[in-house]
Design brief:
Structural class: mainly alpha
Strand order of the largest sheet: 3-2-1-4
Bound molecules: flavin-adenine dinucleotide
Strand content: under 5%
Number of domains: 3
Number of helices: 16
Shape: globular
Length: 340
C-alpha cells in the first residue's frame, strides 16, 4: 500500500477516491498554537471521509512514498510542477500576459470570469459549510461588505474565509459561485463587486509569484537587484520590547492569540513595522508566516512587498498614520479596549 503525505493543501483531496486505497498521513505545517488548533479542526473533519487518515505531527520524521503537497518555497522540486495545476485558483492556467500592476490585470480577468464555475469543489468541512450559510444566507452579509470590510473587530465586517481558502478546504471557485448566487437573489451591488475584486487580488498574487518567484523573498522585492541577505526573525517578546505604541502591542496580542488580523490591522501593523520601527519587511512577512492561520505565501509576501514599496504598488511605500487610522476605522476605540 502506498503511503501518501498530505500537508496543508487539502484542496488536493478532491481526488479522495484514489486516496481511499492508500495510507494517508496528514502532516500540516504549523509554527504557532493557533495554527495547530486550526489544522487539528481540519483533521477531525478530514477523518469523516478518510477514517484511516493518520495525524502526523512532524512531517520531517514521516516515512512516505509520495508527498501530495506543494509549497511555493519548494517549487523547483519535480512534484511541484506536477501538483501546481491543482492549486486553489479561479483560473486554472494563467489567463493572460501578466501586467506589472493589478489595475490592468483586473478588467481582462473580470471579462474572463464565467457566470458560474460548474467544476467547483463543494465544501465538505462542516465549519466551512456553516460559515458559508451564516455569511450568505442567514446574515446576508455580502450586501454590506463594502461598508464593513475595514472594521478591525468583530466577525461580520469581512468574510473570514481566508484561512479556509489558504488550506484548501474552500474552493475559491465555490466561493465565487456563492457570490454569484447571492447576486442572482439579491442583486449585483458595489459590495458584491468588491468581494470579487478581492478574490482577483488573491488570484493576481498567485500569478505574480509565478512570474517573479524568488524575488518575493528578496529585500528589494521585484524592484531591484536580488538581495537575499539574511534577515532577523523576531520573537513576540522582542517585538514587545521595541515599542510602546499601544496599537502595535494590541495587534501583536490579537495575532499571537487568534492567528488572525483584519486587513486594515495588517496594513497599519506593516506600516508601523516598516516606517516607524524601520525593520526589514521580510522579517515582518516571516512573523506573519509564523502566526497567521490564513498564511499564504503569495498573498502574504505580495502584500508586504506592496506596503514596503518594492512590490506591485505603482505609488511606492505606503505610510499609515496610526492615530488617524484608528480615528477613522475604530472611532469607538473597540480595538484597543479588546486587545490591550
Ligand atoms: C501585510 C499583509 C499580509 C497579508 N497576508 C495574507 C496571508 O498570508 N494570507 C491571506 O489569505 N491574505 C493575506 N492578506 C490579505 C488580507 O488581509 C486577508 O486575505 C484578509 O484580511 C482575510 O480576511 P477575510 O477572509 O475576511 O477577507 P475579505 O475581506 O472577506 O476578502 C475575501 C477574500 O479575498 C482575498 N483577499 C482580500 N484582501 C486581499 C488582499 N489584500 N490580498 C490578497 N487577497 C485578498 C482573501 O482570500 C479573502 O479571504 C494580507 C494582507 C496584508 C496587508
Amino acid at each position: 500500500m502506498q503511503r501518501l503525505l498530505v500537508q496543508n493543501n487539502l484542496f488536493l483531496l478532491k481526488k479522495y477516491e484514489f486516496l481511499r486505497d492508500a495510507e494517508v498521513l496528514y502532516a500540516p505545517v504549523y509554527r504557532s498554537p493557533p495554527q495547530l488548533d486550526f489544522f487539528r479542526k481540519r483533521f477531525s473533519e478530514l477523518q469523516k471521509f478518510l477514517p484511516g487518515v493518520i495525524w502526523c505531527e512532524h512531517a520531517e520524521e514521516a516515512d512516505f512514498d509520495v508527498a501530495l503537497s506543494w509549497d511555493a518555497e519548494f517549487e523547483t522540486s519535480a512534484f511541484g510542477a506536477r501538483i501546481y495545476p491543482e492549486q486553489n485558483r479561479l483560473f486554472s492556467s494563467r489567463p493572460m500576459k501578466l501586467p506589472v500592476t493589478f489595475t490592468p490585470f483586473r478588467q481582462p480577468a473580470e471579462d474572463l470570469l464565467p457566470e458560474f464555475f460548474p467544476d467547483a469543489v463543494l465544501p465538505w468541512d462542516t465549519e466551512v459549510k456553516n460559515e458559508l450559510d451564516y455569511y450568505f444566507r442567514e446574515k446576508l452579509l455580502p450586501a454590506t461588505y463594502i461598508e464593513t470590510r475595514n472594521e478591525m473587530t468583530g466577525r461580520d465586517g469581512s468574510t473570514k474565509f481566508s484561512a479556509f481558502l489558504s488550506c484548501g478546504v474552500l474552493d475559491v471557485r465555490h466561493l465565487y459561485n456563492e457570490i454569484r448566487t447571492f447576486e442572482a437573489l439579491h442583486g449585483v451591488t458595489k459590495s458584491t463587486n468588491a468581494l470579487v475584486y478581492e478574490l482577483l487580488w488573491r488570484e493576481y498574487f498567485t500569478w505574480h509569484y509565478q512570474k517573479h518567484t524568488r524575488a518575493y523573498f528578496s529585500r528589494n522585492g521585484i524592484k531591484g537587484v536580488l538581495d537575499f541577505t539574511p534577515f532577523k526573525k523576531y520573537s513576540t517578546e522582542e517585538l514587545r520590547s521595541l515599542t510602546t505604541v499601544p496599537f502595535f502591542l494590541a495587534a501583536l496580542k490579537e495575532l499571537t492569540t487568534t492567528g488572525f488580523l483584519s486587513n486594515r490591522t495588517r496594513q497599519i501593523f506593516a506600516s508601523v513595522w516598516i516606517n516607524d520601527l524601520k525593520l526589514d519587511w521580510r522579517s515582518g512577512a516571516s512573523f506573519f508566516e509564523e502566526h497567521l492561520i490564513d498564511y499564504d505565501v503569495y498573498s502574504n509576501y505580495g502584500n508586504w512587498m506592496y506596503l514596503a514599496g518594492v512590490g506591485v504598488d505603482p505609488r511606492g511605500k505606503r505610510y499609515f498614520n496610526v492615530n488617524k487610522q484608528l480615528k477613522t476605522y475604530d472611532p469607538e476605540g473597540r480595538y484597543l479596549s479588546t486587545w490591550s
